[in-house]
Amino acid sequence: MQDEPFNTICHELLNTISSGVAVYDVVGEGLTGADYIIVDFNRAALEHEGKRREEVVGKSLVDLRPGIDDFGLIPIFRQVWKTGEPAFYPAKVYTDDNFAHWYENRVFKLSENRIVAVYDDVTERRQATEALEETATLLREVLDSMDKAIAIYEPVDDGDDFVFVSMNKAAEPLTHYRMDEVMGRRITELFPGESSVGLMAKLREALDSGEVVRIPLKEYKDKRITQWVENTIFSLPSGKVVAMFENTYDERMAERAREE
Q1: What pTM was estimated for this model as a whole?
Q2: Which of 151, 221, 235, 260 is the most exposed, fewest CB within 10 Å of its CB?
Q3: How far is CA 127 from the centre of its chain?
Q4: Looking at the DSSP assignment, which residues form a beta bridge with residue 114?
């Protein structure tokens, strides 16, 4: 009876936590979900489950979560119970006949035969991440399908230099670099002759004005390459700058010959 006020206080404290908190007694060898008996659930955990406290306390974890043995969390429970060392189980999808949700868990040992899992339903976050990844993949496919070379830059040093954020496939033969070779690197490092075409100044102009800026066909030259290119440059709301560029030297020469 002396423990009842203390247990009540502990339960009230658990209910102040926004994450789900589940306390388990470990029985047997702790090998399956049937070996973890629910001692307490806080309010957030009950809301996750859509149940009342009396519906879960005294039940085994496998009663509550029929698919728990396939989820991969039980070995983490057993590891924590055996070693006493806390462990983190990163987000993974749990599925059974009723639903599928993404959960991440932090597991701690409380006493000789008791552990606690602090967990969060991260389904919405995972779905948002997957949606962003799908969008990024789609944009990458669109960029790589374009004939015109495209490079995306981010200003550094208050706009005194720019680093590559991305580049499409068509840009590789013109820059003589693979995309993975330029990511995160400065223009001045990769293209020391950029002042011959005024690229940096035009990038800053597009960034400051928000207007489309063009660089007519000019020869770029350094110790590595000699290249004729023209650029169309514009800024994005994110503060990044896009350059669309191509080598139109042959077209310009042919056009001039026709005019003459």
Answers
A1: 0.54
A2: 260
A3: 11
A4: 25, 111
Comparing CA positions, the residue from 34, 38, 42, 40 lying closest to residue 17 is: 42
User: What confidence tens digit (pLDDT) does each residue in 37-68 have?
Assistant: 999 888 888 888 888 888 999 999 999 899 99
Do residues 21 and 12 lie in contact, with contact meaning Cβ atoms separated by under 8 Å?
no
Considering just the CA atoms, what is the radius of gyration of the chain in Å? 30
Closest CA to 237 of 258, 214, 206: 206
Distance CA 225, CA 11 (A): 70
Tell me the mean pLDDT in the region 236-240.
Answer: 90
Q: Within 13 Å of residue 210, how many CA atoms lie on the same side as its CB?
A: 2
Nearest residue to 166 via CA among 222, 248, 238, 247: 238
Length of the chain: 260
DSSP secondary structure, 61-107, as one string: HHHH-TTHHHHT-HHHHHHHHHH---EEEEEEEEE-SS-EEEEEEEE
Rounded to the nearest angstrom, the gap between the alpha carbon of residue 119 and the centroid of all alpha carbons in its chain is 20
Q: Which residues contact 39 (CB under 8 A, 6 or more apart)?
A: 23, 24, 25, 57, 114
Beta bridge partners of 88: 106
- Distances 99 to 38, 113, 120, 216 between C-alpha atoms, Å: 21, 30, 16, 59
**Residue 93 · residue 101 · CB < 8 Å:** yes
β-sheet bridge partners, residue 221:
226
